[in-house]
Amino acid sequence: MARYTGPVCRICRREGQKLFLKGERCLGPKCGIERRRYAPGQHGQRRGRKPSEYGLQLREKQKARRTYGVLERQFQKHFREAARLPGATGENLLRVLELRLDNVVYRLGFADSRAQARQLVRHGHFMVNGRKTNIPSFRARIGDIITVRPQSLPHEYFQTRAQILPTRQAPDWLSLDATNQAGRVVSLPRREQIDTRLSEQLIVEFYSR
What we know:
The chain is of the alpha+beta class and 209 residues long. The protein folds into two domains: 8-93 and 195-207, Ribosomal Protein S4 Delta 41, Chain A, domain 1 (Orthogonal Bundle); 100-185, RNA-binding S4 domain (Structural Genomics Hypothetical 15.5 Kd Protein In mrcA-pckA Intergenic Region, Chain A, Roll). The chain is 41% helix and 8% strand. It has a five-stranded antiparallel beta sheet, covered by helices on one side.
């Protein structure tokens, strides 16, 4: 399966803001964008021209893709799904992205980044409603219960995570049972509950050209 394997700090510098792709490292002094606040490449420090309307739309779409770790074809698929749902397409798109299993695992605090959450899901460490699920793009629904597989609980990672989970705060649309290392989707995420700094209307305009 195709995936980006390059330096992720370069992505944040290109977008001009922290996308928190490395978890806790992004909060410390080692964060790449803190040390070099300019775009990557040999022309990164040059003062660029004012971006066009298309350029702004493209950057916002790329920012969303990179934030959630989704490749172009899959992102287009998510957009088509969002367009078919009732309501505002932009908000629907963010909701579809938030309900991906890898993102739910990240939001519950089982991982420090979406990339780490995606790896844990792919390795089969989680169950949805009692069934092993190793598809990161699996869309969670209201009432779904996400738990760590019993076979994975003795692993050192989850033993350490059990000590960290009580300090984590899940968003309002999720409930976390830190004692049993389980979470539940209690409602669909509303726009004000999604803390991702994105202008979803620009993404809609990009695909509506």
